[in-house]
């Protein structure tokens, strides 16, 4: 019976995670841009018949960018909950999180160029 409760908790965790992704896709323009880039990268992978190691690199980059963007979105929501007034500390936190996404995206473009060109 204990394992059943554990399994129920696990499914609940997945439901919350998917709800977070759905919210971000519906409300965050940049995540929708990353979704289109993901579809393009996966499509190119199939068309070009890339090797297994190349799939690993592409999918790692996809996960890296999506993860960074989701964390950035979460941080922005929390910061906006604290205050909507201009605050230099919150601005720096938001800028740093956005910078992290940018670094991940740039590296992903470099990896894509290596794999697909």
From TrEMBL:
Task: Kindly list the GO molecular function terms attached to this UniProt entry.
Answer: ATP binding; kinase activity; metal ion binding
Q: Does the keyword Protein biosynthesis apply?
A: no
TM segment ranges: 33-51, 57-75, 96-116
Primary location: membrane
- Which residues are catalytic? 69
**Binding-site residues, ATP:** 16, 76, 94-95
Q: Which residues hold a divalent metal cation? A: 76
Q: Which residues bind substrate?
A: 69
PANTHER family in alphabetical order: DIACYLGLYCEROL KINASE
Q: How does it sit in the membrane?
A: Multi-pass membrane protein
Q: What GO biological process terms does the UniProt entry carry, in alphabetical order?
A: phospholipid biosynthetic process
What Gene3D superfamilies does this protein's entry cite? 1.10.287.3610
Q: What is this protein called?
A: Diacylglycerol kinase
- Keywords from the UniProt entry: ATP-binding, Cell membrane, Kinase, Lipid biosynthesis, Lipid metabolism, Magnesium, Membrane, Metal-binding, Nucleotide-binding, Phospholipid biosynthesis, Phospholipid metabolism, Transferase, Transmembrane, Transmembrane helix
GO cellular component terms, alphabetically, are: plasma membrane
Per the entry, the cofactor note is: Mn(2+), Zn(2+), Cd(2+) and Co(2+) support activity to lesser extents.
Cellular localization per UniProt: Cell membrane
Homology family = Belongs to the bacterial diacylglycerol kinase family.
Pfam families named among the record's database cross-references? DAGK_prokar
> Which cofactors must be present for this protein to function?
Mg(2+)
Does the keyword Metal-binding belong to this entry?
yes
The source's domain of life comes to Bacteria
